[in-house]
Amino acid sequence: MTLVKICGLTRAEDVTASVEAGATYIGLNFYPRSPRYVTSEQAITLSERIPAGVCKVGLVVDADDVTLTELMKVPLDMLQLHGSETPQRVTEIKQKFGLPVMKVIGIADESDVANLESYFGVADQVMVDAKPPRSGGLPGGNGLTFDWRLIAGRRWPVPWMLAGGLTPDNVAEAVALTGVKQVDVASGVESAPGVKDAALIRAFVAAAQ
């Protein structure tokens, strides 16, 4: 069965819809430039609706230790590093904050796939996402896909998750082509940036599984 992460939740009803649909991971976005940004106080309130057994993931982008210390008020289960964090920084964050880390790698061509390997020894999981546009888009959540053939049939030594432009209409194809066991969605189940659609969430989880 394919595990699903619904990312960038900002409303209590969207958390409930994601949990009821069968999401394994709930992503809370702490990147201030994102339309899906939540404060630590908002995240604490949203977390109260997430039952035990559903992994609460905090998304950050090149966050400093002061920012991460503030986030420790939120009962997170994992940190998702969505910036240009080096393997050394990943190790440092794990040691200082004691949470498992998922490192996101943007993919556009074969050389980006090779970049994944430097994180296998330090990250608990990796997320393979579409590289953001050169025009300076957000690090993720841009609704862009990449050529899934670049990672088709890969076997990596850590659990990995596929992201980037996934929707209820294409996620089954992505799973079939790549063999991925975990998928992530943000914009693909939204009616507006940061506003999730319960019917799309249900359709996505059903299609992924």
Describe the protein:
The protein is an alpha/beta fold. It has a single domain, classed as Aldolase class I (TIM Barrel). The protein has helices at residues 12-21, 40-47, 65-71, 87-97, 110-115, 171-178, 198-208; strands spanning 3-7, 25-29, 55-60, 78-81, 101-107, 125-130, 160-162, 182-185, 190-192, 195-196. The strands form 2 sheets. Strands 7-6-5-4-3-2-1-8 form an 8-stranded parallel beta sheet. A two-stranded antiparallel sheet has the order 9-10. Strand 4 (78-81), helix 4 (87-97) and strand 5 (101-107) form a beta-alpha-beta unit. Helix 1 packs parallel to helix 7 (198-208).
Report a brief summary of the structure:
The protein is of the alpha/beta class and 209 residues long. 29% of the residues lie in helices and 22% in strands.
> Count the helices. How many?
7
Hey, roughly how much beta strand do the residues contain?
Answer: 15-25%
Question: Helicity level, as a percent range?
Answer: 25-40%
Q: State the domain count.
A: 1
Q: Which regions are unreliable across 5 or more consecutive residues at pLDDT < 50?
A: none
- Describe the strand arrangement of the main beta sheet, using strand numbers: 7-6-5-4-3-2-1-8
What is the number of strand segments?
10
Strand and helix map with partners:
Elements: E1 3-7, H1 12-21, E2 25-29, H2 40-47, E3 55-60, H3 65-71, E4 78-81, H4 87-97, E5 101-107, H5 110-115, E6 125-130, E7 160-162, H6 171-178, E8 182-185, E9 190-192, E10 195-196, H7 198-208
Parallel strand pairs: 1-2, 1-8, 2-3, 3-4, 4-5, 5-6, 6-7
Antiparallel strand pairs: 9-10
